[in-house]
Write a structure and sequence with these properties.
The chain is of the alpha/beta class. It is built from eleven helices and nine strands. Helix 2 crosses helix 3 and helix 5 crosses helix 7 (162-172).
Length: 265
Amino acid sequence: MVDADGLSMWAVRQGEGPDVFLIAGLSDPAEAWQAQLDGLADRYRVTAFDNRGAGRTELSDEPLSVPMMADDAVALLRALGISSAHVAGFSGGSVIAQELALRHPDAVRSLVLMSTFARPDAYFRSMTGFWHWMVDQAPSERAMLEAFFLWVYTPRAHADGLVDRFVEETLAFPHPQSPEAFHRQLEAFEKHETLDRLAAITVPTLVLSGEIDIATPPRFGRAVAERIPRARFEILPGEAHQPFQEVPDVFNTRVDAFWREVDGR
């Protein structure tokens, strides 16, 4: 546990080298990044953490927002003595990363935005509206996870048993997210709006989208990349919302090459 400007936050750090700072998405604790903590620690000092309201980091009483979570992230960086880092975020974590780069640009060496968006559309709001209903109405936590994971993993992962493994791991996790925290995090992400501000991001940026991602389709990632000066946009063929978990070697190799290029400039 780390005292980050008065908020007690859970953080995990592995490896030595240039700092990499990983920001998880809706509901996910630091363990969502385990394949990156393990797979990149031979070249980087990798830090992952629990956002406010997820895992072991408490949910406070004040209204939750993406800017607040971005400020939490920079407070954690400072508490850990990290002046700047390669920042990578997925889904909700990617929008926190956008705000972090906008609000605290000196803390960000580069950006990797996986499964990202800058402005929710009608489809997105309908989808997240169903997620709110699903958390409250699902007959069990297992049923909720099985339904939710339809939105984020490939048919391949459902067929080969990977999703079943993730369900069991989530059910066994000793720090589950409360329904209240799920609703409040999701409401914060639904209000995210940076499309008209992204041009202010000046750090090297790589935007990645899964080809068959139905939660944040590639059109969202392309719109983000088009607004950030000199950002690169790439589609990962055959992948869905969370390729960093499904094909971690592919993801790790791509971001490593990007960070090596940035550090070599």
